[in-house]
Design brief:
alpha/beta, Rossmann fold, 9 helices, about 25% strand, binds S-adenosylmethionine
């Protein structure tokens, strides 16, 4: 039995990928119960809702980047979306995602590096809870854009604390100026209600002609 407050603090303060993967490995079994039942983690439901306002085709091929145990996939699956793939660094989190039986493929890898996935291959990317302190930063956008189909959508949350620290606005505007994507919507919503944290839910569209 893990102490959820302690393990969440360790997640937010991990200083290396290896340390972060170890902590998620320990948390995987109890993650859903702690975050959903006890802590009020509402970001997966909010972000899924935002994505689905733009992606109406239930056969859309969607990558859940940093899928963890599959909370986002479960939301999408419940709404009838069936062409779902997951990507995560942690083998134990991926094992829990596999148990849910909602992803057609699961990939293990590092979102901060080159992704072993073909370009222009997903109708949409969704990433919730992964652009956050000590996890993944704006450097991951380039690869996520590469694997998205022209005209496809990218929807992600950025935790409030990380937004300023990691200069998301500057990084995202720089990509927009380059012509690779354009912003459709951005809204601030609750993230984890028990800790009164918030996040920005952002949705971008990859430019159709690149
Ligand atoms: C807070 S969890 C979010 C999981 C899920 N999206 C959700 O909302 O419940 C963050 C996830 O990001 C994964 N992660 C962290 N750094 C990563 C990286 N560099 N590459 C791939 N996944 C990473 C972790 O293993 C963990 O499963």
């Amino acid at each position: 039995m893990t102490n959820r407050k302690e393990i969440h603090t360790r997640v937010l303060n991990a200083t290396s990928k290896e340390e972060l993967a170890t902590v998620y490995g320990e948390w995987a079994e109890q993650y859903d119960k702690d975050l959903i039942d006890e802590m009020g983690y509402v970001a997966p439901a909010f972000a899924s809702q935002v994505l689905l306002e733009y992606v109406e085709d239930q056969s859309a091929k969607i990558l859940d980047a940093g899928c963890g145990t599959g909370l986002v996939g479960a939301n999408l699956h419940q709404k009838g979306y069936r062409n779902l793939e997951g990507f995560d660094y942690s083998a134990q989190m991926l094992a829990r995602a596999k148990d849910k039986g909602i992803y057609s493929r699961l990939h293990q890898g590092d979102l901060t590096g080159k992704l072993d996935l073909p370009e222009n291959s997903y109708d949409a990317i969704i990433s919730v809870g992964t652009f956050t302190c000590g996890h993944v930063g704006p450097e991951a956008f380039a690869e996520l854009i590469r694997i998205t189909k022209p005209g496809g959508h990218l929807c992600f949350t950025v935790r409030d604390q990380a937004w300023e620290e990691d200069n998301y606005r500057i990084a995202m505007d720089k990509i927009e100026k380059s012509g690779a994507w354009h912003r459709l919507e951005e809204k601030t919503t609750d993230y984890i209600q028990q800790e009164e944290s918030s996040c920005n839910v952002c949705i971008y569209q990859k430019t159709a002609n690149i």
